[in-house]
Design a protein that fits this description.
Blueprint: H1 10-26, H2 35-80, H3 88-101, H4 111-153
């Protein structure tokens, strides 16, 4: 793997994001690709897709894990704040405020910050996968067009 995404700082994340963006932007599909171009680009797309998909799976798991922790904490805190707040909305606001300011056991920063950070990374990798799929679909179309052109030229 080119880039590590587990337990990285915000600055390291910005670098990873910039590097993946540059990497995917460097995979350009020529207007009139040759067979060699198609093979090379498919290899590049496969390489980046594999890496991005692994990171996406990791982040998807982390996102779901922390969302479960968040929901469990909200349920537990509801009992704590049951007598506070006059309305349901006030109690929910107190719970959210508490979770936004206090880390849960086993975490160093508040769960809301963790979820926001992971969600940003998760959605970034999801967008990369979409871009890779679009480029791959273009390659399939170009490959089919090249094959058709060859058949027509050869008189098949």
């Amino acid at each position: 793997m080119r880039y590590k995404i587990e337990n990285i700082t915000t600055q390291e994340w910005l670098e990873v994001k910039q590097n993946y963006t540059k990497w995917i932007e460097s995979i350009e599909i020529p207007l009139d690709p040759t067979t060699t171009d198609i093979k090379r680009i498919n290899h590049e797309l496969d390489e980046i897709y594999t890496e991005v998909r692994i990171h996406y799976a990791y982040l998807e798991y982390q996102y779901e894990k922390y969302m479960r922790m968040y929901k469990h904490a909200k349920t537990s805190l509801y009992l704590t704040f049951k007598e506070s707040g006059k309305t349901e909305k006030e109690r929910e606001a107190l719970i959210y405020d508490f979770l936004e300011k206090n880390p849960l056991p086993g975490t160093k920063i508040p769960i809301t910050v963790i979820i926001e950070m992971i969600e940003e990374r998760y959605l970034f990798f999801k967008a990369l996968i979409d871009i890779i799929k679009e480029k791959s679909a273009k390659m399939i179309t170009d490959s089919a067009a090249l094959k058709l052109e060859t058949n027509v030229t050869e008189g098949r």
